[in-house]
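Possible regression after last week's pipeline update?

I re-ran a chain I had predicted before the update to compare outputs. Posting the input and the new output here so someone can diff against the archived version. Not blocking, just want to make sure nothing changed silently.
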Amino acid sequence: MTERQTEVLAVLNRIVDAWNDGDAAAYASHFTEDADYVTFFGMNMPGRAIIESAHRSLFEGPLKGSKLVSGGGEPKVRFIRPDVAIVVSGGGSSLSGGDKPEPGRESTLTYVLVEEAGGWRVASFQNTRVSDPAASAD
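New output (post-update):
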């Protein structure tokens, strides 16, 4: 793994830490001011302020005590320019604080990170729930 890949993945680790601490301000701080955050059900939360506000409500309410956990193997990091990285990884959440995604909470996550003066930040995020299309055909 290159040093730049390590820098990008460190941002994602800090995002996980902030979520697991229930810290909406720290969580949102890793996104650009104008970031697009697309939830697993398709809602776009545009901008760092909205990302922070929405996550504050989640961390104080239905997702209080939840944990983000990894899954789906190693993240794939690809640089499309020296200052733009795309990361595709698996992951999910545990409402009970466990170390594996709970059923129905496993996702494929896509991040677009840009390098700014203060370091790497997420400019776009997409959370897509893993599902079995064959199972839903019934």
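Follow-up from reviewer: compared with the archived run. The radius of gyration is 15 Å. Marking as no regression found.
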